[in-house]
Design brief:
Length: about 90
């Protein structure tokens, strides 16, 4: 298949590099975008489910972003440590 489309693999690799989080700034930008979406969804839950049910779902949305953000930042630290460990010298 690579013989049929010789430049396809190269193009796919270039596109895939766009989806890699490399810096803490990129991580915080993604976490911010997740938080905006979660609070929007949580406010919809507050409208649809008045009372404690809506508040619990709103909290669940916010906690999901908190856990995802922690995981993203943790993975950045882990990748940086692995890169430092693999450096020669």
């Amino acid at each position: 298949m690579a013989d049929v489309f010789p430049g396809m693999i190269r193009r796919l690799r270039r596109i895939s590099r766009l989806f890699v989080i490399r810096t803490r700034f990129e991580a915080f930008a993604i976490i911010y975008a997740l938080a905006l979406g979660a609070t929007q969804r949580g406010s919809v839950y507050l409208d649809q489910f008045p009372g404690w049910g809506g508040r619990l779902l709103f909290g669940a949305c916010c906690l999901a972003v908190l856990m995802a953000g922690a995981k993203i930042l943790d993975c950045l630290k882990l990748e940086a440590a692995a890169a430092d460990r693999d450096k020669p010298g």
